[in-house]
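To whoever is on call:

I kicked off a structure prediction for a single chain this morning and the downstream step that reads the tokens threw a length-mismatch warning. I double-checked the sequence; it's 495 residues and nothing unusual in it as far as I can see. Pasting both halves so you can look.
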Amino acid sequence: MWVINWKYRNSFNFWRSLVGKLWITIICLVGCVLIALGLFLLPYIDTNFAESESRDIKRLFTYVCIIGFSLTTFFALFLFTKITQPMQQLIQAANAIRKGNYGTRLSLVTSDEIGELANTFNHMAVQLEDNIRSLNHEKEHLASVLRSMTDAVVTFDGEGKVILTNPPGEKIMQAWCDLDWAQDVEGQEVNNKGENSSRDVPEPLVPLFKLVMEHGGDQSSNVHVQQGVWSVQMTPLYADSVVRGAVAVLRDVTEEVRLEKMRRDFVANVSHEIRTPLSMMQGYSEALLDGMAASPEESEELIQVIHDESLRMGRLVKDLLDLARMEAGHTDMAMKEVDLVELLERVYRKFSVRSKEQDIRLHFECNLPSIVLQQADEDRLEQVFTNLLDNAFRHTPPDKNVIIAAKLLDDHRTSIAKVSIKDEGAGIPTSDLPFIFERFYKADKARVRGESVGTGLGLAIVKNIVDAHHGIIQVNSTLGEGTEFILQFPVNSSK
């Protein structure tokens, strides 16, 4: 049954071909001529010739008809070989190129129009293959450039659909598509489970996209997404002078914005911290010059204030220089073996006198005779413990406790020296804990009023020194109950 259908289909295709149509036309033309001749010639033969001669002429006429139809069949087969088969090869080659086989060529060698058509087709295929190869090279080059870019690149069509991204851009789109841009009652963004999963222009980029599509030209802006800041440069895509889409280049500038803010805050804080002692020194010195001191005691008091403020400004400048050197990586560390217990005992004795003067109970707790750090700077560590104890004493009221504790943590792989300094002072608000190691940050300005006012740089210096020792510093605090600083140092540092 399949063979019959195949033969029927091929025969049907043959009759629809150019040769089949030409053969039918020739057969019909020959048939019409022979029928016309038969209608006019046969009566004439019967009338003018004898019966035997008439029979011979009719037989000859029959032979001529058979030979004529045979010649038309042979002519049709000749046309099929010379025209239809080359055309079929040309069609197959064109279909192969249409499917992406650009190396397809015709091997027809004739001197007629079909041969010229085959040569033209082969030349066209060569040019097409070269053009496709060039386009692929350009595409691969563009893809390599996009992949090598650290900035995110996202291309949108005229309807705002994403049509092309590089790996950083794809990462951003996946992250942003999982966000719900509507904020909850607390003002924080929450995760969306599926409402914004389409590949459309993200909500922060919509205003820029509309400006580009409506007015053309480059548009740039900084957008804030959660805790990050992104610099966005959007450029229109043109097609025949019509904007058909836009290309957005996104760069994470969160760290740059943070550093710029830190720079502005640093200048403002330094100006504020220096202005206060300078104003006091200027005011009291002018009072002395104007003779406002009525007695030697008043003059001595004014001079003492000027001296204290000069010392305070000197401490501020020293702390600023130390912090600048540390953050620039130029900290001079005299690394050697340090007995941490011996160092803490020395610091404990140094603050014992102050604890009696302020009526604060100072305790030192350690069950080990020694804890030796293989690589540590003794002076810098003493500066760390001194700063932390100074803060504890300044913020702890009389008749309260300040505890220094040290112990060794050993998990059979690494040994960690743990030191904690705990006070029963005013404590630090939970909202301020993430920022207490920043420069000039003071959690509660009311807590630093008194005889000894800090510069706001002590904890920043402590953090840098601990980091230089490859250690960790943490803080736990409850408002109104006290604060505990926990420091951990590697006993055997391999760095």
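Update from on-call: the warning came from a stale cache, not from the record. Cleared it. Sanity check on the structure: Residues 334 and 379 are 9 Å apart (CA to CA).
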